[in-house]
Amino acid sequence: MTGTLYLVGTPIGNLEDITTRAIKTLQSVDLIAAEDTRHTGKLLKYFQITTPQISYHDHNRQERTPELVARLSQGENIALVSDAGMPGISDPGVELVQACIAAGIAIVPIPGVTAAMTALVGSGLPTDRFVFEGFLPSKTKARCDRLQSLTTEPRTLIFYESPHRLIAMLTDLAAVIGADRPLTIARELTKLHEEFWRGTVGEAIGALTRIAHYTAHPPKGEFTLILAGATPPAAPDETDLKEQLATLMQQGMSRSAASRHLAQITGQPRRDIYQLALNLLDLET
Q: Per the CATH hierarchy, to which homologous superfamily does domain 116-227 belong?
């Protein structure tokens, strides 16, 4: 019989956030595959877990994945953990999960805390619909291109960012999406100095650039940014649409062309505008 790969969520700061089930799993498996064995070693020592570890990270996952799959195929049970949170979420894990699925090996997630969800629920921004973007590209052009594709996204946006790129990212956010967009920045989540900053993108840039100590001594750890989604444009008044249709058609546009043109500039469904054009002609006749 093959073994099982357990995807174990670990604390993102406060060690007491680990679940009883996670502790029992880490105690019972044959091996723990850790992103950083030294970091995970502190967690294991705290809970007196003596299970052996093996490293599994971005730099060795290509050669380590088949090794772990082979051990699982031979009946060993393995727990995969990242430095913090759920493995596979902006951390190594996806390739191993895919390889195990292909090999017919059972996958069992052991849920735990994640920075994205922790920051989202504390942000005060809408939580009913959201998009997780993780880390944006480090290069300015690629980062701006990604942001450009999100300018009209109505759902709340979640980003991760490192301390040394935070101001550059915020500057690009202001330039591409707008300085007035509501934003929450979370850091040190679940730790003693947990902090939520709330305001706009522009205010965040001003606040950070005014803190000289920040530029001299950047804080450790990653930031989680929760950005309000785009406000959908207000639907144009039906009377205004009819007037614009009439003007375009008087200028020689067909009903179809006029409807398509207004749909493109207003964002309204073309079929609805076309129906208005038909009704407009019915009234004229």
A: Tetrapyrrole methylase, C-terminal domain (3.30.950.10)
